[in-house]
């Protein structure tokens, strides 16, 4: 009952300003200066958030209609007047002793009712092992950046467990249903069952409690979380308990067993849908926003518009039966990923079955392909413009910076955009490329395109805390190269993280860049030149490592071409030299990345193991953590490298070892004159990878070495040769 009362109490005040919560946030963000800020309510008419910032008597007054507005007022002051910044990858919060006073009263209102955040995939690729301390920081980040509508699916397994056990399912049934924690994103979407489990009861209980804390904090700040709804995904044992149930057996086609979807025509569908939301509301409360994605990367059994319309209506009725105020928040990914099936007639049928004011569509990948433009703005449904970025959590400098700066405001002003009610971030993974997230959230409080010529130098100044001509010039080069957004959907991987090959790419190692390798080198030159001025900045150190990492990762291909040529020319001496150069490059990257926590394998594994209450649980979570970022599935997984990471520890112990084994194969071929058996090698390397996934080793969780010193050493070692090789 305590859990319910906490949530329900927070629910009632969700739309109002909770002044103590705002003061608490300020104290968490800038503890030493918190007493210099005053929070006041700002009554508004309508549904759009508003904030004001004003100086008076040496203090800064922050006004807002809710906690998000007040936090945004604080961040506006910190960025515009104190030249500070808060990101995942380094923050600058060095406030002057005497705070600068704004001239007059600054008032900002948002044109967007909703500012959406997260994706089911983010919960796996980045957030699998987060504890309350990490969540607390993220919720503050959300509020500071104006987010008011995050997906909130932590602890969903507790609700599933309660619902199905109340229907007579056993603990064994549920163990055969739940995946391990790293795979929840796809379990929730109905793609996989059971993989990398069984899920311990301790996890279910602890994450129920964690979700209660998350939701309470979000609601105190005026954030309205989106909770899940039932979409038909049921345990495989459902047919045993309900032999007459209408089930659809489906497969995600990525190397996993079939899953089972209860047909929406079956009366049980509405019953379970209602029971699910009722049980969820008891423990987590509700803001009447529900996420439900039918047929995520699974094709419906019929493209008949009547069938799709009836299906959609029944899914919504399942929500409405438990909550008459329910609003369905639908990820529009299916309209992008399976466009051959989802033609306009099918999309229209799916959407029009639900009243306009009771559905919001997320145009999930708008910066790359705006679905709203080919669907008459989703046929009258309210919809949200989103940036989908960073597939799989891969490390790659990439983004469509011009699109993010201009397209949200352009869409808002377009008469054809219909009911565009918000903007959002729907990336598969976070904790990288902070510039894009600072830029995207800048759109929240304006209805005009962002002028990058003005914004980017200010971003660099806020980030590094000093004005540096070299740093600004580096970022202009980055803007024109890695962030130009051309040619490719998402950032390219490096061949060094691919399963060893003589080719330029592998299955999920797509190496085509959106710029010429040599064109990025001047940005490296400028970042190295900026070291003396900027080296005290945590943001600069992160960026220096990231740019250096990208340059070195790109250099893997030119070195690969050298040892391939030596191998084909049967030049044993050159082959040994260039393969050693290649392995040294990987080792050098590993050493560089060990200087920044965000580029280390150790914290990922340590955070996973920390959730275990005994040795077996710790081992299970470590296996989950290792598996997702390497094979993704079993030894024969077709998704291997989809979530590859250029991380210290992983480079030396996984990628480098694979290449060493490959070079031994090629060296043997040179010595014997026999053609290498690549098929046999593929099988052997799969088994080695599976062994690595199932092994255990403690990796450093604390950075080692100086980012600036090692980056400078690598610059001296590689820069001249790169200039020659990339001409």
UniProtKB/TrEMBL annotation:
Record protein name field: Alpha-N-acetylglucosaminidase
BP-aspect Gene Ontology terms: carbohydrate metabolic process
InterPro entries: Hex-like_dom2, NAGLU, NAGLU_C, NAGLU_N, NAGLU_tim-barrel
Keyword Kinase: no
Transmembrane segments: none
Lineage of producing organism: Bacteria, Pseudomonadati, Bacteroidota, Sphingobacteriia, Sphingobacteriales
Originating species: Mucilaginibacter celer
PANTHER family noted in UniProt: ALPHA-N-ACETYLGLUCOSAMINIDASE
Domain Alpha-N-acetylglucosaminidase tim-barrel span(s) in chain numbering: 115-446
Keyword Isomerase: no
GO molecular function, one term: hydrolase activity
Source organism superkingdom: Bacteria
Pfam families listed in its UniProt record: NAGLU (PF05089), NAGLU_C (PF12972), NAGLU_N (PF12971)
Domain Alpha-N-acetylglucosaminidase C-terminal: 455-717
Keywords, comma-separated and alphabetical: Hydrolase
Every Alpha-N-acetylglucosaminidase N-terminal domain range: 23-100
